[in-house]
What we know:
The protein is 24% helix and 28% strand. It has 590 residues and is an alpha+beta fold. Flavin-adenine dinucleotide is lined by residues 187-193, 210-213, 218-219, 226-230, 249, 278-279, 313-316, 318, 361, 363, 395, 447-449, 529-530, 543-545, 548.
Amino acid sequence: xxxxxxxxxxxxxxxxxxxxxxxxxxxxxxxxxxxxxxxxxxxxxxxxxxxxxxxxxxxxxxxxxxxxxxxxxxxxxxxxxxxxxxxxxxxxxxxxxxxxxxxxxxxxxxxxxxxxxxxxxxxxxxxxxxxxxxxxxxxxxxxxxxxxxxxxxxxxxxxxxxxxxxxxxxxxxxxxxxxxxxxxxxxxxxxxxxxxxxxxxxxxxxxxxxxxxxxxxxxxxxxxxxxxxxxxxxxxxxxxxxxxxxxxxxxxxxxxxxxxxxxxxxxxxxxxxxxxxxxxxxxxxxxxxxxxxxxxxxxxxxxxxxxxxxxxxxxxxxxxxxxxxxxxxxxxxxxxxxxxxxxxxxxxxxxxxxxxxxxxxxxxxxxxxxxxxxxxxxxxxxxxxxxxxxxxxxxxxxxxxxxxxxxxxxxxxxxxxxxxxxxxxxxxxxxxxxxxxxxxxxxxxxxxxxxxxxxxxxxxxxxxxxxxxxxxxxxxxxxxxxxxxxxxxxxxxxxxxxxxxxxxxxxxxxxxxxxxxxxxxxxxxxxxxxxxxxxxxxxxxxxxxxxxxxxxxxxxxxxxxxxxxxxxxxxxxxxxxxxxxxxxxxxxxx
Length: 590
Ligand SMILES: Cc1cc2nc3c(=O)[nH]c(=O)nc-3n(C[C@H](O)[C@H](O)[C@H](O)COP(=O)(O)OP(=O)(O)OC[C@H]3O[C@@H](n4cnc5c(N)ncnc54)[C@H](O)[C@@H]3O)c2cc1C
């Protein structure tokens, strides 16, 4: 029991002001998560990882933890939660709280927006107690934290005040106590990040790979299940260690590929892998990043990673963003880079710049089981799906709107997709012969296609691809058509807003220069993956994961040259291009 308490105290803290006693418990640090999942996707927007009851309509098993009360007293309790689909129906994600044997009658998860919902009050004796989160619906109830206080006053609602208050309440250090040194710190363990890590480690660099999920692969992982497309270019050997077969998107075969990927990463002795660590800051001085700070998604422990070189493989360009790197977001006006395609006009490239980037997706599947199975009414979902009926969702299940930001509004986007899925599935279930249809898998992770793009010395555009421009520093080669998506309801208002279409432009072989893989203004920052330096249309082809893996491999090799001569990335191009290109071209022999 002593050991358990020490663990819980890592991320819960009791403190007293005068006569008052208070205790904040982070839900993600509950000792037993039961069927609840830790969701750290929206930390930058709502302040913390949270527990999510993602049971596809069946209540998930209880999450439990123990906590210590320092003084006898009557305690008021709040949970930080949110009604994620408010309207004239019961909130979909209702749950309850139990303390010891007392189940509070209040339905939780019913308040608008992330806020502290009052649970009730209870008399507690000094000593150890148990707390249980009881899901009622299986429809994505969420709990960020539980707060107990002898004073009837909830924690702050305002996001900024809450974040300062939270650090104080949990008595967290303001910064990580220990600094760890590496040759290259890579943030984001998608295919781009994994490839960069392998290439650099093989070349003798000591590499930290920080990834906020329990499994590697990003969109290719078993959590999102997109298969990898594109050619291998110069990096077949490395990419085969981490890519996937061409199974249908959403296939559980993705789990096998997760195993392969992890096994191969673990074989590289120089890779220090930090799974479940989310970077939350990057500190730069004179345009040089000194360190990246990361937090464990469950325990809240902090770590500082310092290095002469950093690679942003987060997809969202977080490291660059925090360090002050120039970045772009949205669709450029057609004249900005001359990216017109007459056949598709505005759908391809608009007259005026806007925020209609390619959207995010949630993939899902259902299957027939042996007996009839009911699925509850979901009025909160059918409001989005309307009459649309479906039994699974592929890449076309995608959501983008000019007034929504793919990072800042990502939780709303994910939730919109969940409503579209549950509503469409409900409609499908009403059809004759579908009694035994059951939801098998719905990802709770939002699969992103496009958000921030960091600016490098070269901004890769449609013209580079359609003119098949071969650069002296062409480190990535691709043949796959360029495809750019748009929402179906833009052309036909009767179509659902959660489905997209792709426009394909076939262009033969095209090349990406090394100069698109490092930041223009942050001297020691590489970026690979969908946040590389490109225009909106420029991203259309190279965003697929063998291409992003090629970028990652090229960055790993560039880091080797940087280390050898103590250089920043730009100088590799200016001074050692021949040696670098030789290394790239001989990659498969290494
Ligand atoms: C539905 C869908 C279908 C697609 N179809 C295909 C396809 O068929 N084939 C194909 O090849 N491509 C496809 N794509 C495109 C492709 O998946 C993406 O462009 C690709 O994932 C980009 O790779 P990445 O490594 O840059 O990013 P990601 O795969 O997103 O990986 C980045 C990782 O970094 C992690 N991360 C982010 N921030 C932090 C942080 N602060 N700290 C630590 N870790 C962090 C994230 O959790 C994420 O896992 C599809 C995309 C979608 C959404």
